[in-house]
From TrEMBL:
This is Oligopeptide/dipeptide ABC transporter, ATPase subunit. Pfam families: ABC_tran (PF00005), oligo_HPY (PF08352). GO terms for biological process: peptide transport; transmembrane transport. It comes from the Archaea. Residues 5-261 form the ABC transporter domain. SMART domains: AAA. The keyword Disulfide bond does not apply. GO terms for molecular function: ATP binding; ATP hydrolysis activity. Keywords: ATP-binding, Nucleotide-binding, Transport. InterPro entries: AAA+_ATPase, ABC_transp_ATP-bind, ABC_transporter-like_ATP-bd, ABC_transporter-like_CS, Oligopep_ABC_C, P-loop_NTPase.
Length: 327
């Protein structure tokens, strides 16, 4: 199998600042365990959605994989090469192949830069084209993402554009480098609902055209199912279930996955008999509950759940979940 990305036991902990009194008392260091040992692979040309509530660590996971923030532990293998610790200088040519589309198209673009220049800019930064060629390629890319007449759009500034149009610019800027892998972080969540389907379609078109692999980060399982080949469900820094879209939708195994589905009317309608309701909010990632970290909210929690962390169990080919009920 040709995997573009292999993430092994990836961790990202952020130290919590101690108060003066805590330092005097030599209180132990504490950490926000935002990503707490996640492992998964992405095949070439495949889209994996990373799904979970806000605060589950999915955005930190995406940024750590791209080395926009440094991992605390684990390994990131990209195109067969361990990039976990390679220095910034050596990482630069690899970065060209790995791009990110941020959630907020308003904050992603400089208000002082023309749209066309923003798209051409990465080509100049990476020394892949001179000014004239970069402009030509940016014009082609504007047309490709549906912002026509492209000459007119080239001269516009971000404030002239709608949210959906800005996100097309952000996608064009990422795609002009012909990446092999994209992290799309809540890429449609700030866009008007009527525009979401067309942005997802645009990403899907690029996926086919460039044989692009994608980590699609979203809190919305309904959106994840539209764009993904597989889904990974994340809870409090861990992946609790991973599998093909159809297996996760038709045969969810982890109580948290089932509860997430219940929150989505279009999926819940099909699953009405299997209602799983969870209580409370996601705890903070400093004081992670022992055993199964979902146990304080799980309606099926047993004694063992409070003591022992469940391991991933294979349910069917490529479908795994971590829950003591599955043994
Ligand atoms: Fe619930 Fe226990 Fe399964 Fe965790 S291991 S999801 S607490 S039943």
């Amino acid at each position: 199998m040709d995997y573009i990305l292999n993430v092994k036991d990836l961790k990202k902990y952020f130290p919590v600042r101690r108060s003066f009194v805590e330092i005097l008392k030599k209180a132990p260091e504490r950490y926000v365990r935002a990503v707490d040992g996640i492992s998964f692979k992405i095949k070439r040309g495949e889209t994996l959605s990373l799904i979970g509530e806000s605060g589950c660590g999915k955005t930190t996971a995406g940024r750590t994989i791209l080395r926009l923030i440094e991992p605390t532990g684990g390994k990131i293998i990209f195109n067969g090469k361990d990039i976990t610790k390679i220095p910034e200088k050596k990482l630069r040519p690899i970065r060209r192949k790995m791009q990110i589309i941020f959630q907020d198209p308003y904050a992603s673009l400089s208000p002082k830069m023309k749209i066309g220049e923003a798209i051409a800019h990465p080509l100049l930064i990476h020394g892949l084209a001179d000014k004239e060629e970069a402009k030509e390629r940016a014009l082609k890319m504007l047309k490709r993402v549906g912002l026509t007449p492209e000459e007119e759009f080239y001269e516009r500034y971000p404030h002239h554009l709608s949210g959906g149009q800005r996100q097309r610019v952000v996608i064009a800027r990422a795609m002009i480098l012909k990446p092999e892998f994209i992290v799309a972080d809540e890429a449609v969540s700030m866009i008007d609902a009527s525009m979401r389907a067309s942005i997802l379609e645009l990403l899907n078109d690029f996926k086919k055209e460039y044989n692009l692999s994608m980590l699609f980060i979203t809190h919305d399982i309904d959106i994840g199912k539209l764009i993904s080949d597989r889904i990974a469900v994340m809870y409090l820094g861990k992946i609790v279930e991973i599998g093909k879209v159809k297996d996760i939708l038709n045969n969810p195994q982890h109580p948290y996955t089932k509860a997430l589905m219940e929150a989505v009317p279009s999926i819940a309608r099909r699953k009405r008999k299997k209602k799983v309701k969870i209580k409370g909010e996601i705890p903070n990632a400093i004081d992670i509950p022992p055993g199964c970290r979902f146990h304080p909210r799980c309606p099926f929690a047993m004694d063992i759940c409070r003591k022992k962390e469940p391991e991933m169990v294979e349910i069917e080919p490529e479908h795994f979940a971590a829950c003591h009920l599955l043994k």
